[in-house]
């Protein structure tokens, strides 16, 4: 009853912004403690993330990865499943992309390779999500444990494949050969420059557009299909779902397949979009950051886009900050990121009741 | 003191006022500059240069793949030169940026790029590993020695292969236990697992363990100390970490590679191309200092000097794992 009287913008905008400001306030104290000027630091961080074309490009490039993993976590979470395996699914998804590119780049044009790579990323990522899903649905092995284990198996598998089979001979680095250019996703700055639009030289590529399309897809799937209804029912009350005749095992498996496939698209951005070869550790923690993104974005596609951009900005602005002020080490930047997660994730209810109470009282008065 | 300070201020002012500012820079790899090993070696070279010349070296520590290229590009754009880049992981990023900035000089440590503005510095780690392997076999009473690698990649296998050859050279029937810490970059920074691996090797009879595993080695050295066994350090001289149980360290003079780049660039003698540093060039060696003096007998020292001379003269050919990706010798 009281919920109805709180204006929507309070929950959607005011509380998150307050939480982020508080996180920055505490970060400012940390920066003050190491003897730097927090205002100056905040300036570098914001300017680095949004102040110029190239910075924005980098922010959105990081956000692309985080949208994929954030969506992956949220789809599973809607079904009550905690998919911690985004990291491994993204890694294996990248393998799918890499194998398609390596095998077709000499013979096929871009418009054949690109759809196949998208399918490859989805199928490989989904396959990596399938086994934990099957074990959860049919054998009752807890998905949190199995997906974490599958992250390690994924990284061992990738090292084995790249070091023993895919590594380019005579090179020190454990990378595959570089793909031919027809297997590269075009950069957005390349696409826009013929139109006279200059957005600076950044790794932002077509995968960003694909990420936005995926948001639309997830929104439609989860909120506007019969399957989505089943998924949300399962997530809210598994007993009721079973009573209503929903095949919970089947929904669980499909939720993880879609989740894994979405995570696999990180490979599209990283392997086909930026690195142009198959390499180790390209996932760099995006799978785990996706959990925070999904939590902050309240598991809704729009929220995930905003949270992903916020985290992308912290990655990019943080790098800029560490670059401009050498006493602020990358570890301090991780502290700032951690504080944002702490205040807007774990401590989100700190102000919530009070602020909502304020608006309810005002509405009643 | 004041004169030095003034001189350095002037040097800074002069160098930054020139159009082609010769401000040196360094980009560490993702392990960070305080890894007590590889990156810290470079950092020591940087410190040495700054201490001698008063010229500050711009440092950058990237945290992911994309930041490597981004940081390099930014340094290049601002005219920093030469830029020392640390680790084979940076090869492709350096290649891209070096192509776009032909006027900036780059030195890549542990990787090879053929461009007119890149100097590639690689080390003959197999030769240094051979020496410490020979020494390990001499110190071993059980004729069983261990090797703990970091991430399971060819470069680390190269250390293991050289070590094994050195062990077999001294004691042909010795057993070499080999374990890799893991398959992610974290394998270079996992002392807990390093300690576990070392302990399992000790329980199988090993009494000397060589760790080629970056920060993971710290755990290996601790385990050796706890069990009264010997450990061998890597990259930097790590003998001081556990004095008394560190038999030696296989030093890889990355500090000299960085130092020399800055020095040569300042003198105008920096050259692009491939630089291979082995035993003969002093690029790799074994560490002797007061921390391990009591562990090395005169006899061992003489034998090692003999082996060193033979490797340098070519009488002993140490097989390089990376030449054919196998360890058949």
Automatic annotation (TrEMBL), chain A:
Signal peptide: none annotated. It is found in: Cell inner membrane. It comes from Marinomonas vulgaris. This is ABC transporter permease. It is a multi-pass membrane protein. The chain crosses the membrane at residues 12-35, 55-77, 89-106, 112-131, 143-163, 204-223, 251-272, 278-297, 304-326, 332-351. The keyword Transit peptide does not apply. Pfam families: BPD_transp_2. CDD domains: TM_PBP1_transp_TpRbsC_like. The lineage of its organism: Bacteria, Pseudomonadati, Pseudomonadota, Gammaproteobacteria, Oceanospirillales. Keywords: Cell membrane, Membrane, Transmembrane, Transmembrane helix.
TrEMBL record, chain B:
Pfam families: Bmp (PF02608). It is found in: Cell membrane. Residues 27-320 form the ABC transporter substrate-binding protein PnrA-like domain. It is a lipid-anchor. The keyword Membrane applies. SUPFAM superfamilies: Periplasmic binding protein-like I (SSF53822). Keywords: Cell membrane, Lipoprotein, Membrane, Signal. The keyword Signal applies. Residues 1-21 form the signal peptide. Belongs to the BMP lipoprotein family. This is BMP family ABC transporter substrate-binding protein. It comes from Marinomonas vulgaris.
């Amino acid at each position: 009853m009281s919920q109805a009287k709180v204006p929507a913008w309070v929950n959607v905008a005011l509380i998150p912004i307050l939480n982020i400001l508080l996180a920055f306030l505490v970060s400012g104290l940390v920066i003050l403690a190491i003897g730097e000027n927090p205002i100056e630091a905040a300036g570098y961080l914001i300017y680095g993330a949004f102040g110029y074309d190239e910075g924005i490009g980098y922010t959105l490039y990081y956000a692309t990865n985080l949208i994929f993993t954030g969506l992956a976590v949220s789809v599973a979470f809607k079904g009550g499943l905690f998919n911690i395996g985004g990291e491994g699914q993204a890694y294996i998804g990248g393998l799918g992309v890499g194998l398609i590119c390596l095998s077709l780049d000499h013979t096929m044009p871009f418009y054949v390779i690109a759809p196949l790579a998208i399918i490859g990323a989805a199928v490989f990522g989904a396959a990596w999500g399938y086994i934990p899903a099957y074990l959860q649905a049919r054998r009752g092995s807890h998905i949190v444990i199995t997906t974490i284990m599958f992250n390690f198996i994924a990284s061992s598998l990738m090292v084995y494949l790249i070091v023993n089979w895919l590594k380019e001979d005579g090179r020190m680095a454990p990378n595959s050969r570089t793909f031919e250019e027809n297997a590269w996703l075009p950069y957005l700055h390349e696409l826009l420059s013929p139109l006279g639009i200059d957005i600076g030289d950044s790794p932002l590529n077509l995968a960003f557009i694909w990420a936005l399309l995926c948001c639309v897809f997830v929104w439609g799937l989860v909120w506007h299909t019969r399957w989505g209804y089943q998924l949300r029912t399962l997530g809210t009350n598994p007993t009721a779902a079973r009573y209503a005749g929903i095949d919970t095992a089947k929904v669980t498996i499909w939720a993880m397949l879609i989740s894994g496939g979405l995570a696999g698209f990180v490979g599209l951005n990283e392997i086909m979009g930026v690195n142009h070869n198959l390499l180790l550790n390209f996932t760099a923690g995006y799978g785990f950051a996706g959990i925070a993104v999904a939590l902050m974005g309240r598991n809704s596609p729009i929220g995930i886009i905003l949270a992903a951009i916020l985290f992308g900005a912290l990655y990019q602005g943080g790098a800029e900050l560490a670059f401009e002020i050498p006493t602020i080490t990358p570890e301090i930047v991780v502290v700032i990121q951690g504080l944002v997660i702490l205040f807007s994730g774990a401590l989100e209810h700190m102000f919530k009741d009070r602020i909502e109470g304020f608006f309810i009282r005002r509405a009643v008065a | 003191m004041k004169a030095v300070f003034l001189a350095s201020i002037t040097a800074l002012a002069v160098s930054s006022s020139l159009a082609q500012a010769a401000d040196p820079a360094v980009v560490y790899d993702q392990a960070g500059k305080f890894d007590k090993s590889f990156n810290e070696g470079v950092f020591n070279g940087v410190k040495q240069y700054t201490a001698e010349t008063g010229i500050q070296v711009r440092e950058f520590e990237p945290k992911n793949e994309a930041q490597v290229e981004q940081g390099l590009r930014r340094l290049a754009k601002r005219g920093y030169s030469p830029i020392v880049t640390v680790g084979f992981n940076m090869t492709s990023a350096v290649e891209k940026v070096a192509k776009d900035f032909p006027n900036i000089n780059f030195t890549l440590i542990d990787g090879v790029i053929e461009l007119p503005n890149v100097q590639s510095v690689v080390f003959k780690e197999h030769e240094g590993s051979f020496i410490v392997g020979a020494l390990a076999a001499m110190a071993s009473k059980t004729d069983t020695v261990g090797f703990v690698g970091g991430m399971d990649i060819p470069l680390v296998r190269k250390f293991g292969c050289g070590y094994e050859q050195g062990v077999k050279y001294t004691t042909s029937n010795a057993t070499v236990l080999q374990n890799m810490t893991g398959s992610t970059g974290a394998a270079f920074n996992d002392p807990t697992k390093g300690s576990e691996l070392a302990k399992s090797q000790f329980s199988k009879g090993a009494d000397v363990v060589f760790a080629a595993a970056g920060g993971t080695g710290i755990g290996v050295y601790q385990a050796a100390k706890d069990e009264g066994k010997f450990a061998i350090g890597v990259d930097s001289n790590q003998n001081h970490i556990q004095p008394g149980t560190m038999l030696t360290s296989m030093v890889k003079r990355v500090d000299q590679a960085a130092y020399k780049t800055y020095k040569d660039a300042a003198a105008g003698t920096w050259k692009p191309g491939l630089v291979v540093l082995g035993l003969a060039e002093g690029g790799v060696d074994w560490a002797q200092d007061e921390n391990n003096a009591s562990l090395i007998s005169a006899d061992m020292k003489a034998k090692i000097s003999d082996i060193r001379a033979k490797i340098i003269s070519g009488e002993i050919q140490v097989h390089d794992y990376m030449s054919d990706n196998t360890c058949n010798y």
